[in-house]
Design brief:
Length: about 80
């Protein structure tokens, strides 16, 4: 299982989401990474200003803010 946070430079919500993902994934031992929406034309076309985007195994889990309980359940496979 891999979590990806699609972010943008100088985005406060992105910084918050990254910190939350880092904390939760660290607790659960889940790998995670970030991708810059502006560095990839396909990501930019798909997500535009909807960042941050949280993905789990390449599937979109949510936008803008991380819902911790829902995120934890998804990582637990529920």
């Amino acid at each position: 299982m891999t979590v990806t946070v699609i972010t943008r430079a100088d985005c406060h919500l992105c910084e918050v989401a990254e910190a939350e993902v880092a904390r939760i994934c660290g607790e659960l031992g889940v790998a995670w990474t970030t991708e810059d929406v502006d560095a990839d034309p396909e990501l930019r076309a798909e997500y535009g200003d909807m960042v941050p985007v949280i993905q789990i195994d390449g599937r979109t889990h949510g936008y803008y803010r991380l819902e911790e309980d829902r995120f934890r359940m998804a990582l637990a496979g529920r």
